[in-house]
Amino acid sequence: MATTHQSKERVEREPPKPRGGLLSRLRSYCIFVPLIYLYTGIMGSLSLLSSFFDRDGRIQHWFAVHWARMILATARVCICVEGAEHIDPSQAAVYAANHLSALDIPVLYSCIPGHFRIMAKRELFSYPFMGWHLTRSGQIPIDQGDARASLRSLNHASKSLRKGMPLAIFPEGGRSASGQMREFMGGAFYVAIKAQAPVVPMVIVGTYELLPMNSFHLRPGKVHMIICEPIPTTGMVPRQMDELSARVRQIMYSTYYAHSTLSLSHPERRRAERQDTNAPPDVILSEATSPTRGSGGEGPLSHEETAGEPT
Partners of 23 in the beta sheet? Predict the structure, then answer.
């Protein structure tokens, strides 16, 4: 009965009110944000220069890690990591994380040991400094408007995994505007199964409260990152990616709402969650997991084209 009562209290709890007033906003707009742009410009330029003699991208990754730590230290964001023993830097794996805020990428870089790649939307690769770093450091772009190109990127990611390079990915497809977890796309799990690499669920709690989507009001505070036990994919085939996706989402969903103060029953949050569901994907496309030949209506790809390597 006690467990049921506590669970009911969590569901009925109102979401926290935004903290900070005018002074907090001025601090963010006049100090935090300009410094973040400065860090991005300096570290991005140094990373770009290092790329001309850094063949495997490790020096560029070093710059990305320190860029992330500078941002978090400046904004006074404290991270509590649970389950770090579930990461083996020597083993290739897919790190599947929920996506709540622009802070999530600095959190991942500062918390995940070892070298890894990130799969991101192609538009980010066109930004000055950041885009140059992403391109030169070997990060993997996803083209939202081209299903065939998305499939090539997924196959490229699986090749990288098979060579021993871990991959970080946001299976929801983009940031949540409401702080609620969204449905998962299948791309991350297609890559994991194709490479026969384990999936490591990573649950980020608290970044939404510190920096919501479409906001420049960055607040100091605490972020909790829970790294769950790896889920093996040995022996699985691509048609089982929905099964794998559902299993990973259930673990992440229950873990997130066990730690988050956000309420599922609040009507404004429910409306925002529905808007999230209807929003276009931001990082990983559903079309990439059920690719079509293009916009000309030629029909779906054959099984061989879907499961095979890019040509």
Answer: none
Beta bridge partners of 141: 120
What is the mean pLDDT, run by run of 10 residues, along the chain of 311 residues? 41 47 93 95 89 86 95 97 94 94 95 90 77 80 74 85 92 88 89 95 96 94 97 94 95 94 56 46 35 35 35 33
CATH number assigned to the domain comprising residue 119: 3.40.1130
Please indicate, yes or no, if residue 11 is contained in any of the structural domains: no
Number of domains in the chain: 1
In the prediction, which pLDDT does 279 show? 44
Does 292 reside within a domain?
yes
Q: Other C-beta atoms within 10 Å of 290: how many? A: 14
Q: 64 with 137: CB under 8 angstroms?
A: yes
